[in-house]
């Protein structure tokens, strides 16, 4: 039996992935997700893992979780009934939003449904100025009247967002007290806790989302924590945050808005770690699962973090890994639109019933089904009860080939080509459109379907190499095991940079560090495991956007501030192609990341039965590339040892994913066990 075991469980749309790190290395497995009750899938995965990895739940010293519960609730609009209390005159700000539209020239563009309906939005007379000084006192009588109305309303949660609360939170905290005094028995979220930053709409929206998700996540985490404890796991549940760091379940309950990119962030962290182990620090990441494809960028070994993210129809400005998501997964459904054009996604067959070839009742052709017809996958190798090829062929003929006048094989190739085009555009968004040349990066491909497409995408983008991790099919779950605890705090303090007192700024950082130190200590991270990373958001005066600049440790002085301004000018030029060193700079937000450092597990995996450094194929089968069908060697991923080399066309089958090496490409297995493809 194993001792000192770390367990990571990531819930996806089709499968729930589990990685166990113990004395014998890594054990990886997948179980079907249970969309109606995701916690059941997590517990199924834990149960299966105890048998596969031969460990007792009582030996687990860490249990990490990546979840889509908050994301799905927001996208599917299944949040809790929520009320919003705001400054008098600003009741509708959260619905009016910004002037930005998804399509500038679409005269029929519609705004997303407001998180809080208008009849549940309330105003209280009070007003602070931009420095947090009281302009209009907090109206106690009006606040009590609002609180009584909220108490009588059918709401589970309340958001409080007053003007300039990031400079002075006294009015928000008093409002919370009044709500409790008047008998409001609901969750309460304050903007000064959730997102104490400028931009009224974004701050109010983030607070409203947090409030709307709180009851949802409370119920889910309550069931999960109970189930994990009942299974015998003695350690608490840690949850991946959107910023790429782990947090306690308690902290997650308070700020569920920070988990909206939980699963994708775990994958990017895992990709960054695996690439770093292989000596590559600058990578594009591509996670293609059953329902979507998430792409991101890693520079100097760290995922790029943004505060300009969007989840579904809503801008979410909490710190999150800069992930761009499209509806292109292995389960994405192929269809012909009214203009007789082939489309793929965004609708997905999901986990139930899934692609036709899974044999679980699916009737609509998917990307995975197209790969079966092209000979690139064999579902029977990783999914029990898979359907025969005849059922897939009949569906592709009926839904795609006949309407377009194509052969079944041409239709299957078209499905893959359209999916590739969608993903290529997504990769350009996070690279070219951000000022990065793809030729300077490697591509890390993971997820069950990512390695099937990666080499062809790399060839289109002139990316020189593709890294397919040995744990490609469960990399998000692995990312849970190697990620530090991380808590991000940001407080806006808009000032001319020239007027910022270095001593005052130092004091702000030290206060935030003291809070971070206390939080990390409460979670068991000793002094040698605590790290604090300072940063400020700066902008030119008059700009509406800002850039993040790192700040040094210790006491700051005038020279520290001058150096930060210089770094800002350099970043601005790199990001936008120009800079104005003579223009005045403004401080926007002071930020601190508090990290509890963990020792990542060794990435060795329990070996298979073979030691095939000569890369001998297990079998061959007909596979189609570019309209040409050839007998193609199929390799067993578990028997390929470091140093093994192979030439395309080739298929490399693993337990969790399948990689394709196209004709003309070469591949080898590096010292970390990753398959490296050079298109």
TrEMBL record:
A matching Pfam family: Hydant_A_C
Residues of the Hydantoinase/oxoprolinase N-terminal domain: 6-183
SUPFAM superfamilies in the record: Actin-like ATPase domain (SSF53067)
GO biological process: glutathione metabolic process
Domain Hydantoinase A/oxoprolinase: 205-488
Domain Acetophenone carboxylase-like C-terminal, residue spans: 504-671
Gene Ontology CC annotations of this record: cytosol
Single GO MF descriptor: 5-oxoprolinase (ATP-hydrolyzing) activity
InterPro entries documented for this protein: ACX-like_C, ATPase_NBD, Hydant_A_N, Hydantoinase_A, Oxoprolinase-like
Region: Disordered, residue numbers: 600-636
Protein's name according to its UniProt entry: Hydantoinase/oxoprolinase family protein
Species assigned in the record: Haloplanus salinus
